[in-house]
Amino acid sequence: MEACTGRTGRRPGTSTTRTEIVSAAARAFSARGYEATSMRQVAANAGVDPALVRRFFGGKEQLFSAVVTAAFQPERAVVTLLDGPRGSLGERLAGYVLGLLGAVDQPGPVLGLVRSAATSAHAAALIRKFLANGLLGEVTGKLGVDRPELRAGLAASQLVGLVITRYAVRVDALAASGADELIAWVAPTLQRYLTGPAP
C-alpha cells in the first residue's frame, strides 16, 4: 500500500509514478495541445503533487520530450528498423509509424503529439529535433549514407504528412486504405530518401 504525502493526500513518487505521469501528460497534450497543457493539470490527472512532476521532469518542455520518447520508443525503433535487409528499410519504417498510430478511428497518442506540433512552434521544434535529429537521424547516421541529415528530414516530412492527411485531415482515400496498401505505396519513397542515390 502506498504511503500518503500528508496534507495533499496525493501519492509520492513510486516505481510506476513516472510512467503514470507520462501517460497523463500524453492524454493532456493530445486533448488540449502543447500550449494549453499545464504541469498542474498533468499532476492533477496523474493524482500527484505538481512538485513531484517538476522534480521528475523539470519543466513542460522536458515532460513533452518524455511523452514523445515514450510514444516513439526510439531505442527499440532504431534496432527494429536496422534489423533486416537494407533494401526493405522504407517498408519497415512505414510499418513502424502506421503501427504506432493504429486504427484511423482510434489513433494512438502519436497523433496528438503531431497535432501539438502543428499548433505550437515550441512543440514543433521538439518533434523536429526528435524525429530528424534523433530517431531518423540515428538511423541514417548508422547507414553510412551521404547527406544523412537531409535524408532524415525528407523521411520525416513524408511520415508527418502521411500522419496528418490520414489521421487528422482524414483524406477519404487514405483513411479508407489498409495499412499494408499504404505501406506498399509509401515505402519506395522512404527507401529512396534513406538509401537512394542523391539527385
Radius of gyration over all CA atoms, rounded? 19 Å
Give the class from helix and strand content and strand pairing. mainly alpha
> How many structural domains are formed by the residues?
2
Low-confidence stretches: 1-11
Shape: globular
- Could you tell me the number of beta strands? 0
Content of β-strand? under 5%
Q: CATH fold name of the largest domain, please?
A: Tetracycline Repressor, domain 2
**With helices defined by DSSP (H or I, 4 residues minimum), what is the helix count?**
11
Return the string of H and E elements: HHHHHHHHHHH
CATH architectural group of the largest domain: Orthogonal Bundle
Q: At the fourth CATH level, what is the homologous superfamily of the largest domain?
A: Tetracycline Repressor, domain 2
N- and C-termini, Cα separation: 62 Å
Largest sheet: none
| Integer average pLDDT | 87
Fraction of residues in H or I helices: over 70%
The first-level CATH class name of the largest domain? Mainly Alpha
